Amino acid sequence: MRTCQAIQSQQQETKGWPRVAIIILNYNGWQDTIECLESLKRVTYPNYEVIIVDNGSSDDSVEKIENWIRSYNIPEYKFSQPQARKLFINKCENRKIGMQRIILFSLEENIGFCAGNNLGLKQALINNIPYAVILNNDTIVDKNFLFPLVKYAETHPDIGLLGGQIRYADEPGTVWWAGGKFNSWLGVKYLYHNKPIEKVPTAPFFTDWISGCMTFIPLSIFSKVGGYDELFFIWCDEWDLSLRVAKAGYKLVVIPTSIIYHKVGKTLGKISPLTYYYSGRNLLLLRHRYLPFWKQIFFFTMYFPYKFLQSILYTIKFKDFYFIFYWDMVLDFIFNRFGKWRRHDAMVAKISKNKNK
User: Among residues 270, 43, 34, 257, which one has the least CA distance to residue 138?
Assistant: First the structure.
């Protein structure tokens, strides 16, 4: 049995490195989450913890994740209600440098990407953690990915959000995201998308938006600007957050030496009723918020007919009722019905059933 003095001696190695909370959402994806946790366990940064929010999984995700936590004897705090709370932690609890503990929220329902990550951010804030990383569960991190993010944040007090270099998990020599730009209509561009990793600069550079796949945020920014807008539920939320942070006068920066690998398209699928509805509805909300009125009129005039024709084509191609999803999208936008789509759970069940066939 190690003594408190020995543990405290080891904790000295974390001195000077501020604590970081890594926030991961899980929904029926324990295999990806555990693979992500395995990569996080190898991270060399000496002072971080993990907050997992299970968004009402219908499989045995919580049990599988808890078994993984216990197999490594990692200190765990488990909550069943979506409420952040202060943790009173014994100073001798941290038995090693690196991953200090895991906080697991096991929720009864899916509260969405935005609310789920906000819950993690609130938990980090209430425990006086200075920095947090929003991280997709379908990612694998480089063991050194935290160091360059923290170093930059510690020396640049004007930063609002930081991102890293995100590569394809199945093509690690190719970039998925390393910065993004908005055009004058808030159309988005992925910088260095599908380019060889050698094309990415090594020095930090400014960006218009930060990918929600991995977002580094000081908790002081969360306190001042807020987190993800829960009206979006999922999709377009990263662009809205980036625009709000930039509007508040803070810088958004890509740190290319912070590297992770992403299993692209695993969460909702590249084209599904869920991606179709949420991306369509939330793009309308985003343009309505940030475009001048005359641009909104022009955009809506073009967008509604385009999405209608697309819905007919998708209905034929995918043999599903995309034209109904189109009308849901339009009417929900007009009548200010945001958050979770009323067909969300039915679509999830349908997708799951089709996968199991």
Answer: 34
Q: 305-318 pLDDT, tens per residue?
A: 999 999 999 999 98
Show the domain range for 230.
4-262
Q: Is residue 267 part of a domain?
A: no
Rounded to two decimals, what is the model's pTM? 0.92
Structural domain contains residue 316? yes
Residue 83 sits in the same domain as residue 150: yes
**pLDDT score, position 271:** 74
**Same domain assignment for residues 180 and 293:** no
131 and 22 in a common domain: yes
